Amino acid sequence: MEVIKTELEGVLILEPRIFTDGRGYFFECYNQREFLAKTGLDVTFVQDNESFSSYGVLRGLHFQKGEFAQAKLVRVIEGKVLDVAVDIRKGSPTFGKWTSVELSGENHRQFFIPRGFAHGFSVLSPTARFQYKCDNFYAPGQEGAIAWNDPDLAIDWKLPASEVLLSEKDSRHPLLKDSPYLFEYKK
Fold this sequence. Notes:
By secondary structure, the protein is mostly beta strands. It has a single domain, classed as Jelly Rolls (Sandwich), CATH 2.60.120. About 5% of the residues lie in helices and about 40% in strands. It has one helix at about 30-40, and strands spanning about 1-5, 10-15, 20, 25, 45-55, 60-65, 70-80, 80-85, 90, 100-105, 110-115, 115-125, 125-135, 145, 185. The strands form four sheets. The chain has a six-stranded antiparallel sheet with strand order 1-2-11-7-13-5, with no helix packed on it. A five-stranded antiparallel sheet has the order 10-8-12-6-14, with no helix packed on it. A two-stranded antiparallel ribbon has the order 3-4. It is globular and about 55 Å long. The mean pLDDT is about 95.
């Protein structure tokens, strides 16, 4: 596995080593020992989730609040998405900055988003099957979110705004500057 650092501290792109032959391919999706050795992060994942979405679906920008915060390791097993992480740690040198990576069933890349970041993705293929590991259990009453189209963030979702499909909930999140549920940056 190759670890690629992004411009946001702690947000990582992981590229697995893939073994191919005439039958197809094989790779380890996750190996806790290698993850620790290559990233230095001692993370214990406790929940796996999967979603299926069609072209134009945009999910995000989500996070869990306070003690319910979650780090995520995300990947696409079928289709293609643009995956986005936004630093929402007050006092961070990269507060309000975002980074993105294209994840697909073909490139097998994974994206690690630590606690203190909002997360979202847009579906760029006809359909996409998205999987992610979380290091804390989902707590329905502790959801937080930032508006996907916050003009201060100016995220390029690689979709025309007219083709974005949102849930009712995702259509009414606050702007980052108006969110009461941010994290404190700890050096």
